[in-house]
Amino acid sequence: MSLRIVLLGPPGAGKGTQAERLVQHLKIPRIVTGDLLRAAVKNKTDLGQKAQTYMNRGELVPDELVVALIREQLSQLNSQRGFILDGFPRNIQQASALEQLTEIDLALLIDLPREEVIRRLSARRMCERCERIYNLVYQPPKREGICDACQGLLVQRSDDKPDVVAKRYDIQYNQDAQPLVESYRKRSVLVTIDGEGTIEEVFERILRVIRSYK
Ligand SMILES: [Zn+2]
């Protein structure tokens, strides 16, 4: 069985964690485009140098270049068994660019209601002394409001206030994600997973979907 998977879902839905589990379970590679890009720039590969010129100008790296990085990675992995793409595509333009490279068997959307995304993302706290980051939902401090490392006070940064988080979610995620999700739905490869509950519960739901492909 070869499964070519793209992972979709809002920030805070635990995509990264679930992707790691899937990698171990399916023994297929995970392709994280942000990591690919950083590695290419660091190793000064041809594509990395091209990407660097955009970054130096403060511009976004073009989708075609990211897809070229993915192509390179796929050929190196020689992955007959499929892959999990994490972090790409984020919008419908990127999905079209990806389509030129490979077909997708499964677009897995780990979904969360907007209110839950905002609750999870606005649960971030930072130690005002050592700047260590906590999350009251995932990684709470041992003592409420106090940093485990230095006993400093935990504060909420203005970026993490619920109204700011909500605005960022609506503008950066929701606007791009809706058409993307629709396009995969039209291609009949979309499966939506309920992202609420524990990591285990969500992973079990994902496994149920994966089993139906075997
Ligand atoms: Zn601290």
- The amount of beta strand, in percent, is 15-25%
Q: Give the helix proportion (percent range).
A: 40-55%
Helices and strands: which structural class?
A: alpha/beta
How would you describe the oligomerization state of the chains in this entry?
Answer: single chain
Question: Over the alpha carbons, how many angstroms does the gyration radius reach?
Answer: 19 Å
According to CATH, what is the topology of one domain?
Answer: Rossmann fold
CATH architecture of one domain: 3-Layer(aba) Sandwich
At the fourth level of CATH, the homologous superfamily of one domain is P-loop containing nucleotide triphosphate hydrolases
Question: What is the helix tally?
Answer: 8
> Ligands in the structure?
zinc ion
CATH class type of one domain: Alpha Beta
By DSSP, the count of extended strands is: 8
The helix/strand series, from N terminus to C terminus, equals EHEHHHEHEHEEEHEH
Average pLDDT: 92
Spatial order of the strands forming the largest sheet: 2-3-1-4-8
Task: Summarize the entry for a quick read.
It is built from eight helices and eight strands; from the N terminus they run βαβαααβαβαβββαβα.
Characterise this structure.
With 214 residues, the chain is an alpha/beta fold. The protein has a domain at 3-113 and 190-211: P-loop containing nucleotide triphosphate hydrolases (Rossmann fold, 3-Layer(aba) Sandwich). The chain has helices at residues 15-26, 33-42, 46-56, 63-77, 92-99, 114-121, 162-186, 199-211; strands at residues 3-8, 30-32, 82-86, 106-111, 124-127, 133-135, 154-155, 190-194. Helix 6 (114-121) crosses helix 7. It is globular, with a radius of gyration of 19 Å. It binds zinc ion. Residues 127, 129-130, 132, 147, 149-150, 152 line the site of zinc ion.
